[in-house]
Specification:
The structure is a single chain. By secondary structure, this protein is of the alpha/beta class. The chain has 4 helices and 5 strands. Strands 2-1-3 form a 3-stranded parallel β-sheet. The protein has a two-stranded antiparallel sheet with strand order 4-5. β1, α2 and β2 form a beta-alpha-beta unit. The chain is globular and about 35 Å long. The relative contact order is 0.19.
Length: about 130
């Protein structure tokens, strides 16, 4: 995870909110990259994110306040892989979503208006590629 933290710092990834599963491994992942996310990031550990269902995560994203411009989700597969596929405007997210991978999307609608296919995949990084 040190390489992922370095990547986040290098690319200037500073989400306003991090939505994290309460699972031990998800919280450990977040802790390993926490210092690279900026001092003012709001971290919300939520029971509902301990899921393997992309629809649950998608519904949670729709509840993000419109004033928030960037969100990071730390969750579980297959939900993360399916969520990436769901969001991608091309209809295809990353082919495989290994542990520790990071998919970044550009979303041009308010979170409450989020729909399948409404986001553009702007980058996808796997830890082994860093």
């Amino acid at each position: 995870m040190k390489v992922l933290a370095r990547h986040l710092r290098h690319d200037g990834v500073h989400p306003e909110i991090v939505l994290c599963s309460p699972a031990k491994r998800a919280r450990q992942t977040l802790e390993r990259v926490r210092d690279s996310l900026g001092d003012d990031v709001v971290i919300e550990v939520e029971e509902e994110l301990y899921t393997f269902d992309a629809e649950v995560v998608f519904r949670r994203l729709k509840k993000v306040p419109a004033s928030v411009t960037s969100v990071m989700v730390v969750g579980h597969n297959p939900a993360m892989e399916m969520l990436a596929d769901m969001l991608a405007s091309s209809g295809e997210g990353p082919a495989a979503f290994p542990t520790g991978a990071l998919a970044a999307f550009s979303v041009s609608v308010a979170w409450s208006r989020l729909r399948p296919g409404c986001a553009e995949l702007t980058s996808f990084v796997k830890p082994k590629d860093l």
